[in-house]
Here is the input.
Amino acid sequence: MDKSGASLESWLRSWLDGPAEVQDSVHAPPSATRCGWREFHAQHERHRRGALPTALPGSAFATALGDLALTDASGFSLLHHAAVAAAPAALAALLSARRDDYARQPQLVNAVNQHGDTPLSLAVDNQSLALLLELRADPAMRPGCCPGALLAAAARCMDDEFLLSQLESGNLHERNEFGATALHHAARCSHQQSLTLLQHGAASDVRDADGRTPLHFARNANVVRGLLLARSDLNARDVDASTPLHLASTRRGGAPVVAALLAARADPEARDSAGLTAADRTKQKDVLDLLAHAGPSPACAVETKDVLCRGSVVGKWILDPKDGREAPGSSILVPSAWTRASRKTGTEETVAPAESFEEYEIASFQYFEAMTAPEDVLKQSGCQIFVVDGGKYSPMAVIPDRRALYDFDWQGVKPPGHHLKDLVIYETHVRGFTRNPDSKLQDWDATAGTFLGFIQKIPHLLKLGINAVELLPVYEFDETACPRKNPHNGEQLCHFWGYSTVNFYVPMQRFSSRDRIGAAIVGFKTMVRELHRVGIEVILDVVFNHTAEGAWGEHHWHSWAAIAKERYYILNRGHDTNYTGCGNTVSANDPMTCDWIVDCLCYWVEEMHVDGFRFDLASALTRGGDGKVSMDPLLMRKMAQEPKLSRAKFIAEAWDCSWPDGYLVGKFPSGGPPRWAEWNGIFRDTIRCFIKGDAGKTGDFATRICGSSDLFKHNGRKPFHSINFITAHDGFTLKDLVSYNGKHNTCNGENSGDDHNNSWNCGAEGDTGEGHVKHLRQKQMRNFMVALFMSAGTPMILYGDEYGRSQKGCNNGWCQDARCWFSWSDAAKEDSKLNRFVRLLINLRKQYSGIFNRTEFLTNKDIWWRVHWDDPYNYICYVLHDHHATGKGYAGLLVAFNAGHEVRSCDLPADKPWYRIIDTNLAPPNDICENEASMVKISSRDYVMQPYSCIVLKTYSDKASIKQYADAEYGADQDLNAHMKAVITRRMSMEFTSTVEGPSLEEVGRKQSDEAMGRVASMVRMRSLMSGQALLGFSV
Here is the structure.
């Protein structure tokens, strides 16, 4: 740092931007020193030694640079110094000023100093590497420190992509003049690059001219462990008979490496050629303490467990020396014969590689963080259909990458930290969102359907107004776990949704844009970072209720079951129970399983920066070992008590496949203070029934748009704990909801899926050319969207609903790939129609956040009704206002729905002008106003509403006048009548309020219960067909 606190970067920049006058500290344009240095060299050397450099004036810059070929006594040119300065902007400034000179003299870019270094080999950051490569720096130039200049630079910068790109063409065993390989260099630089080199076949015991192995140079405990797992000789001796422990003990800060070597039982009594032990050679107290207590200890022994996978690779698992628990991510690929280690004795035996795909079983342990598979495994598996995506399908070999885990650059980007009440959630699928060729991604072949491809479509989410994405499963799953073919065309079906998790720590390898080990981790983190950068949160759909074990009747490969089936699964007389419809049920409240789930959630929050989780079939997670639902489950208590999860959002799909005990909507346990949000399936069903005109739904509709207080208020929760939705991945899309009366799922090879869709095709089944039918469908889609976004609660929409994505009547797309893709060309066509409508509607909701993004339920202080509750016709009108708002510009909203075949007249409040914002009966762009200037003033007191339409009107007034009107028009007492009170306040369960008079409420409750039971029964049938399993543990 200089006197002003500026860095070398700002110092060099001052040359370009500084004053024209020469400062007192610089007497004249600097000339070469006796040793060939110019002022820049001398100043930089003083900077490196901690001295205070003197800034050069702007007028002296061109002269200061002078002859670019001049070097110091060690052969360092100006470019050498700028490259090693760790200041990319400084290097950029230098190249900007003299780029033409360097272009004309390429020998300057590749100049070699007396140590054999080129500027490229000295670059210490990725930006500098890129700048030098733009100048055509030669990556093949060989400095003395490493086999290749670019390889040395990449290792120093810990740039995995750079290193891996060189591995494709380079010789890992190439030596420099001192006999050192790239692995020697990587280990010496204290970087995890050594693990990558090992995974690509670098020899771990190769010796340099001094007889030293890479282990002699290891500066990092993880590097030590990796080298040892790759069979590096723990007590190898160099020409002086020194072991790795000797050398580690003499290095400053070498205690962690010494500890790792001792934990692996390095010999502390080994003596070098001078007869000295490691303790004799060190002067560091912490190292001496370690050596003094060294000795065989079961607690420090490196133990291994079997990790068998398909093919000829094996990952080995280190136990944490502290407590014997599995240490996440301590595994490494050994690309040789199988090595099976006994869990008890530690003895090992070598087994020949598998000669066929099915020869060995799988044992994929719970804490591994990366997975992959050799190319030959893909061929042997018969899964060539999935290799067309670039060979990224990944059947379950466990190979974590350390730098991808711990050295990712988050660039200072923090999670947005939105309150749940402010979220607009967009449920989507990573592959389905961008896999369509019409997505027109950059580098489509590599990025389509991947985490990096998702990033390119962030502008669409921002334009729509989304601030949270809920991603269908991104944990590693087996897409081939579907044996069926499409009976219509013979196409092999795949497991598209991903609700069949293989490993819960591993992001899906096929969602990576590269085949590299650990690339999925980097890709996922990059996606999260870029979403967070623009204020979009990431919520993961997680499937802890069951695992991929036992799906489709397969029991020949195991993970959890091979370790402790009776602990990880709910069993009935030793057999799997099927509360999930997928073949097994995880025993989430077993203490061991519970710890594993909480650890996994913490990993995704802390390491992957995830903002929240949606728990699939969450009711299954409340069940004890006997299969019974608990309202105070251990898992929820531990999640509530875990500090690392304190800011994470939890959303429950509060049902499973067992009725009625598994239906917990409105009463899902939080394990502590009210916290859990729930997918509100009752909101979905009620809105669907009302909008399509089912008689007698007005009161239920009013309950839902007010925030579902009957479900959430009794246990201290708020409106935002209700996740309101019309459609989700499981069921019809919005377009199909108004286009089909029944499911069309024969393309799945079965007729699975829900039969209770509450859908209406508007007069014709499926695609039609009838104009009046298409017009009605467009109106109904807009009506649904208004009901969703003009309701209290947290709204969620399904990807593609904003333009009308169709799955051709398939309401169970779990095994359909292309059918579930987002169509960007269709979205563009609808940009001025439905897409525009949804975008402006979301913006309207945000403008009135005081009404809709609430912490309390809507009451008679916020809403005034204009409705006949006993009229079976579905017409409702109400006025909304924010009773906390102040000011003369206060606005009220009038919302009315005419969900039937009749024309209805809406009486508008008198004496105040009303302006139309929305009328879904009108064709775009008149269906919704772009801004206040485009609102249409209503001249009449009556607004005529066409069948199946809704309106939103706005008035400018003060609260007093609106209240005065409401008292005069609707009566001073705004309390609801007994019937409406019952509708709004009742609990949606098998029990109903006993004080309600009349049979209508009882009939409504019974009908809703029957509908919910029918939906669950359909789900059970569908999931049982998916899994091929018998239904155990419950009846329907």
